[in-house]
Amino acid sequence: WEKVGQASLVAEDSQACHRKAVECWKKAESLSKEKVLEAIPLAFIIGDAPFDPIARNATNEMRAFEQSLEAVDKTRDRLLIGHALSGISFYAFWICFEPEDKERLDSLLRQALDYAIKAGSEFSKIGLMAATHSNIWVMSPFGEYYSNCAFFEQDRLRKREYAERAVEAWPERDKLSKLSGYTWQTMSSDLALGGAYCELARTEPDISRKRTLLEKAVHHLQKGIEVLETWDSGTQYNLGWNHIVFADVQAEFAETMTDENDKAVALKEAIRLGDKAVAEFSAGMETSQMTEDAGSHANLGWAWSRLGKWYSGLSGIVHDGKPLSQSVERFESSANEY
């Protein structure tokens, strides 16, 4: 099951590999459900095929990891326990993109952090600097946790507090990621810090300080995206998400400009990156079998809505009806995703 899931990452017909993985999984489950539950954390280490390759359901997958944790707890195998906890952290964060209820969102973010801390504790007991492909790195979780909190937060003061905490937590995470030698984690350090600086800039009333924060955001996002484009270019889903975040920074730059020509140039760059991002994101949803995933549609809907806003802003600057029509099209696409 694990090997078939891993093969799907590089195969031309990934869906066929996913189907084969699920067939193997179901056959194994008919023999021993307990053993299958114990194997789920091992599959998570390499990035397993989803449980259902056609209709992914993050909530169901999270429940499977919770059941897996109950099974591996009996083995006292800290490696398995740590990866089971990492899996729960991963899905708790992923489901954050689905709920509209703020209390539910905050609860999921806290669960993602709590399980990440527990996973890190298990790995530390066996002297393992775990790679883990969770959205919050379990070996140093606070930077990404606070950066994500800042992204979701609507209250200006709380957003600023979260972003400041993310920046404060970054040195430790950056140091550990470099010591670990894990490319994904060194890249993620820059991407998380770039996002934190962007969210901090949104709360900054002073134009000069705001531009300084945005320049820092650009620096770290560019570093992270350059690595992502080289190291993980096949995963367009990840590229799309990070390009839309980068585009959002460019649009924030436009807000700091008083010259209309400069503002138009900045918005056009944001739009160029945004159009690129939604194309990558859409393609990535297809290749990663995420077309039925609610969180992915919410992310894509957010990306389309940002593009709609930028086209609308450009229309008001250039006094041209075409960008306004393009804005309407993007907002319609956003509504379709939601």
Features:
disordered N terminus, mainly alpha, single chain, 79% helix, 338 residues
Low-confidence stretches: 1-11
- Shape summary: globular
Major sheet characteristics: none
- Beta strand count: 0
> In percent, how much strand structure appears in the residues?
under 5%
Name the structural class.
Answer: mainly alpha
What is the helix/strand order? HHHHHHHHHHHHHH
| Tally of helical segments | 14
Average the pLDDT over all residues and give the rounded result.
85
* Helix coverage percent: over 70%
Distance between the termini: 33 Å
Question: Rg, please?
Answer: 21 Å
Task: Summarize the helices and strands and which ones pair or pack.
Blueprint: H1 2-7, H2 14-31, H3 33-46, H4 58-73, H5 78-94, H6 102-125, H7 142-152, H8 156-180, H9 183-202, H10 207-231, H11 236-255, H12 260-287, H13 294-318, H14 321-337
